[in-house]
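Here is one such tokenized protein:
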Amino acid sequence: MHTLVGLESFVRAAESGSFSAGARRLGLTPAAVSKNVARLEALLGVRLFQRSTRKLVLTEAGEGFLAAVRGGLETVRGAIASVSSAGGQPAGVLKISMAPGFGLDYLVPLLKGFVERYPAVVPDWHFDNRQVDLIAEGFDAAVGGGVELTPGIVARELARAHVIAVASPAYLARAGKPKAPADLQRHDGIVMRSSLSGRIRTWGLRNSAGEQATVEMRPRVILTEPDAITRAALMGLGVGFVAVPHALPHLKSRALRRVLPDWHADAGPISLYFPAPKLMPAKTRVFVDFLVAEFRRLDLARKFLAASVV
């Protein structure tokens, strides 16, 4: 097992370009990673890195060794994880990435049931809107939408992300209720700026008759965070386009009203992303099965459709 730890320390340090970055990915100290690599070098009888105070560079032997062991290491780690258990039950730290608002509203409420069913699994949940690199950053899975599939990653759709226009009753009483998509041009828009492209997001809408319309609102507030758009709409600052899961609690409480109830945009799937099922760790497999079953039990796929809300 010491050899496996040394191999993992070597591969992560080589991929990251430093002992410090490799240590962050492994949850170790830089000194521990350096020591693990030194022990591996002593075992092999070759130097794998040229070390300096400024950077870490693979030697020729190190480059060849990295190419030889990188793929095999993932297979071995998966095989070990797949049989790791505590008393025959799935075990280990389960590192999951999810969007803050969606995670807090819909996944955290499921946490108690999951840990009671799998007491040897320790959820390590990260709330972040950015797209994570599951393999490079050591995540077991991610939940969200709009994630680009990279080699070795698969997606299982949980629901569709329908986007609808909402506003507070106070704003609609003051500004009037739009009757058609074109009317939104005369309203205060709570709009989103893409953190990747820097552009203001526009929405292509569709109604039940199959008609289409593109909406560009007059920006009153520009935000880069979906949850912030919901909060701004609650404050009566204008009309905002938000995904149904974000809007649903506030529509039920009547704190928000749906604008243009026959129109919506489809932003794609809300999916569960995880490494390819071959040699999937038991802890990840039970989380995937649990989340899919809970979405089905709670009928969330239907509830997240624009047609289900008024």
Observations:
- The chain has eleven helices and 15 strands.
